[in-house]
Design a protein that fits this description.
alpha/beta; Rossmann fold; 2 domains; seven-stranded parallel β-sheet; six-stranded parallel β-sheet; 12 helices; transferase; transferase activity
Length: 347
């Protein structure tokens, strides 16, 4: 009987679950999605819903508990937290009941190390940035393999060689590129869920600085004030890809979602990386700049900088960023995971 796998998703946004769903659907063996899944669309998935382990009575959560006496191999291990205790117990019960061949951990140092204690092989997801702190290194060391959900060309220069050697570079785990659509004269600005969103006065200043272009802004925008006629604030839209497909230039942060979208549609890209832990966006943006795949400006530009940035962005060769997209990335990743799980079944 073919043994199944588990895919643990941390509660850092819908992107982790979307990645798990895409690959799980392509796997030839059963896959259980594990995590705190309330509020997410899990239709059609086999799930193990876990109690919440975030700080009690505190909505803010950065993945660390701040305890000075915490073991150095861990990021988050609060004491006397009933949700965390029940969470780990439920994972252990699932392992004892199902005997999984492999657990994909996306992402949690603690779950990766706990799985090792439960004698379950792991494939630990490694996000972009410099993750050379002791907890991350111990998670990577404990893993049978490491999975990078981005192309190898975007990896950081400071990644230790032994980590690279264990890494499977899956590429962007998105679907195939959309059918080519005739581009317009428009600039499309995308703000995702993980950042601060857009500032209405700053967007208005940018649009006024480049009045010969129509600007479409997708995602959250705060602030007030008048906006020029060439600026359109759409808020959340269900068809982000459709807007991007017609863009002459895409403007967005350095998160996985927008970078993957730019690559999938081979869009000229102005990348404005935001501060993130471990330099996740800034290191990815630096790699894009080295490749000539994007124009990069850290932080939101002053109004006077926009005409030059737009001109530089429009001069990019879109084939460079398009070359970072693999239409078979999800299928290839599923095959690699299945092969890794199968290697443990034979032992």
């Amino acid at each position: 009987m073919t043994r199944g796998i588990g895919w643990y998703v941390h509660h850092q946004g819908a992107g982790h679950l979307q990645r798990a769903r895409a690959v799980a659907t392509a796997l030839p063996r059963p896959c259980t999605i594990i995590g705190t899944l309330a509020g997410f669309d899990t239709a059609g998935l086999d799930i193990l819903d876990l109690p919440d382990d975030r700080p009690l009575g505190d909505a803010a959560f950065d993945g660390r508990d701040g305890a000075t006496e915490r073991p150095e191999a861990l990021h988050y291990a609060p004491l006397n937290h009933p949700g965390l205790r029940a969470r780990m117990a439920r994972i252990a019960e699932w392992v004892a009941r199902t005997d999984p061949a492999l657990l994909v951990v996306d992402v949690s140092v603690e779950v990766a190390l706990f799985a090792r204690l439960l004698s379950v092989p792991t494939l630990v997801v490694r996000l972009a940035g410099t993750r050379t702190d002791q907890p991350h290194c111990e998670a990577f060391r404990s893993a049978s393999r490491v999975l990078a959900p981005f192309p190898e060309a975007l990896d950081g220069a400071g990644v230790p060689e032994w980590v690279r050697a264990k890494t499977v570079y899956a590429g962007f785990l998105t679907g195939p590129a959309l059918t080519a659509t005739e581009a317009s004269h428009d600039i499309v600005v995308v703000f995702g869920q993980g950042g601060a969103g857009g500032d209405r006065p700053a967007l208005a200043a940018a649009a006024r600085a480049v009045p010969d272009r129509t600007w479409h802004v997708l995602g959250p925008v705060s602030g007030s004030g008048a906006i020029p006629d060439n600026l359109h604030l759409h808020g959340w839209v269900p068809d982000v890809a459709a807007y991007v497909a017609r863009a002459a230039l895409l403007v967005g942060g350095g998160g996985d979602g927008v970078v993957a979208l730019a690559a999938a549609q081979a869009k000229r890209f102005l990348c404005l990386p935001e501060p993130r832990a471990y330099g996740e966006q800034t290191e990815k943006a630096a790699a894009l700049a080295r490749l000539g795949a994007a124009i990069v400006h850290v932080g939101w530009p002053e109004a006077s900088a926009w005409p030059g940035l737009i001109q530089a962005g429009l001069a990019l060769d879109p084939a460079v960023i398009g070359g970072l997209h693999s239409p078979t990335a999800v299928i290839d990743c599923a095959a690699a995971i299945d092969a890794l799980a199968g290697s443990f079944e034979q032992k």
